[in-house]
Amino acid sequence: MKIVFYSAQSYDKSFFESANRHFDFSLSFLEAALRLETVSLAKGADAVCVFVNDRLDEACLNALKEVGVKWIALRCAGFNNVDLDAAKAMELPVVRVPAYSPEAVAEHTLALILTLNRHTHRAYNRVRESNFQLQGLLGFNLHQKTVGIIGTGQIGLATAKILKGFGCQLLGFDPYPNDAFIAMGGSYVDLETLYQASDIISLHCPLTPENHHLINGSALASMKRGVMLVNTSRGGLIDTRAAIMALKSGQLGYLALDVYEQESEFFFRDLSDEIMTDDDLSRLMTFPNVLITGHQGFFTHEALTEIATVTLQNLQALALEGHCINQLK
Ligand code: NAI
After folding, report:
1. Both 311 and 174 in a single domain?
2. How many CA atoms lie within 13 A of 199 on its CB side?
């Protein structure tokens, strides 16, 4: 089987080449993102392997089919960047890696919460300049704070488990409640109650057309003043302009983002020599109470090992059996 990887980084190459020792597929790695314009690079491939910011709309899927691609493998859990209805209509199976390491993202979520709360990002820079003043570094105890978790699937639950260890009260919102969340002492409430009662709100649901800009101006207005909002899920869940307004007014006390609405234009690349063209991202970076990481929640040794192994297993299942448990739709 020949597999062409789009948006490939050096770490993708090393983890997939290592996992491929058990499969012996032919792997070809491209830096280019998958767009209609780059489909021709997949000519002759049986499968393409794509990541979060590759865009698989109907036109792109059609073009992939035309150049002979039979299978699409997402090396991630989220699939909001794929037109699944179109893929199904043209009988192009799409597989993903549903739960490679929920703990990787959950632990990054905690890293963001603790950094923002205790200002370690600022303290690090201060101390390096021999400034040992504490002014501006005041935090709050996580113990007994109320944390609202939107989406209590694999990652939401793993995050809840860690927060439980800190002594937090856990509120959850999910259209499909999870018994394990209740068993650990979490309570399900409606979104409005979660907004009003939470000191910290963490997003762990997939991005769908229905929840695009779930966190908009009115949602932010109904939250506690000074709330901390954390998004390690997908950028489109937050209306960035509304978040900026809420930061300016002090309604939003802290914002941690591992994902950003327009991240496909910027993330996973070194743009340090270039002019930042996104005014919202530039504005966000000026706030001392905003912490942004470039979609690195998944980025642990364990998660990358699992992603590579499961992706190749998925493609092997499609090739040998014609179906796969991790197939979408
Ligand atoms: P999951 O499928 O195990 O859980 C998602 C949960 O969200 C489910 O329980 C579902 O019922 C719930 N849900 C769906 N729509 C909702 C809504 N409108 N409001 C509240 N809950 C809703 O998925 P998992 O593995 O926990 O991943 C969650 C998300 O995390 C992924 O969709 C992806 O966007 C993001 N992610 C981010 C990564 C990163 O590196 N930052 C890495 C992996 C995933």
Report:
1. no
2. 14
